[in-house]
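Try it yourself: sequence plus FE2/S2 (inorganic) cluster, in.
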Amino acid sequence: MNASPSPDEPSAEVPTRAVGLTVDGRDVEVVDDGISLLDALRGPLGVHSVKDGCSPQGQCGCCTVLVDGTPRVACVTPLRRVAGRSVVTLDGLEPEARSRWVDAFVEHGASQCGFCTPGIIVRLDAVRAKGGDVRPGAVDRALAAHLCRCTGWQTIVEAAEDVLSGSTPVEVGPRDLDAAARRATLELGAPQQVGERVVLGAVGFSADTAPADALIAVPVPGSDDWVVGESLVEARRAAGKVQGRRTTVDPVPPLEVPDGDWDLTLRTGWVDAAYVETDSSWCVPGGDPSPAAANGGAFGAKRHSPLPAVARRLADEHGRAVLAQWSREDCSRSAPKRPPVAAGIRSDGTGVIHVVRTEGIAERIRAAAPGLEVVELDVAGPPTSVTLRGAGWAEAVVLVAGVGAPSEVVSVESGRVGDQAGGERVVVRTSEGAVAEASIGADGIRVRAAGGDILDPVVLRSYCIGAAHMAFGWVTSEGVAVDAEGSVLDLTVRSLGVLKAADTPAITVELVPSDRPPVRVSDAVFAAVAAATWRFLGTPPDWPAGLLSNL
Ligand code: FES
Ligand code: FES
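Structure, out:
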């Protein structure tokens, strides 16, 4: 299925001319040769609170602005369509309303990397300006046009309901945002800020902080070459842009289960980290490149991003600052995926696991399932990495929990989290001393997390909710179709299978206070929720297993 038509193709029917409009109350004029509103905002107008997570796909919502008061996705809005009209970005919202949104998002921990947040707030503020709509499901419907990978939606819904209901802001008392940032950084293994600047999308993403005169570099589809231009539009035109598309082919696990007499089997497919801020990095000649991840580490997927090295090389070659950027299609094709597995396991924890050859994966699997023989196989497909959240280790936890084998890492105990009688809970312990418990029931997902000193309950709760959402989605809906030659077929951000707000079960989190030093617990939450979900579903042999109708 083709994505929305791109407005950034030069067209004979669109003569170059100046377009006048109002942006955040300023009268401006921009030369139009067939560019999108997003190109104009982020390019000549320099409005960087409007983000580009997927242009020109129109699917992530990060570029949402108000056109005459109505939310519009700027990357698929031709500039010529807004001639003479009023465009409002996050920066131009009514100051009191913007500040209320910022406070609510900080109070609820509704921003993590913050890349999706400006677009979400702009859309929600349109709801507020029309008198608010707090009927059940109204916020979920507003969020349907957006993608947030980090938060798991629930904290965003809570912040939105606070603002839209006009409730008095909760006095949370003094909060140590440095301690909160320490907890965030610990959970994601990469520097992460917390507070107002995150909500405003002003944490220094590389695509926002490059020198104004930097050349823009983009890869040429199907080759290792890069081309540069004076603007993103020019560079993409020179590269011969390939429109991202979603395939009708279903994702299929690429490995076969080893022969044997097994109590359970499991096959997983190619899974994208689905971070929303595509990789970018800029560098000046002779300088050090900016990091590909400005605020958080894309759940480990950007740890070895090639973009900083590309930016450095091209800056030296051209003798000018260069901003190297991946589009959403580039991320889909080239960003590392979770290594697929196919395993058979017996109730005593012994078995065999096939896994796509990935440096370091065998050690990660054995750390949680020493009884599994690990066989690495070469399979045509996108790159994989052990740096993605819990890669190998979480799969091993799931398998051991699936059969309930004796283990120091994971156990299945009776009674749901929250001391509810009946049912069961999965308990996962990390080598650093974190303990996470998870259970699934008709009222949703329940999590208990013990990660030493909480440092900041808002942030830790937010990261536990995000990890639970990611785990539930991994089991039920995430996957990328790849053809027999190893080419990725799903090239749009929506085709990666990230769960929408409306499809996400309620997630209840209990944090265990402690005087012990803080340790990362969200990976244990991720593994525990994945295992609890798999067992709740009846241990289906292939993932994604499909959504449940009873949660
Ligand atoms: S950048 Fe416009 S919807 Fe994603
Ligand atoms: S906070 Fe939404 S994508 Fe990161």
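One thing you can check immediately is this: The chain is about 25% helix and 20% strand.
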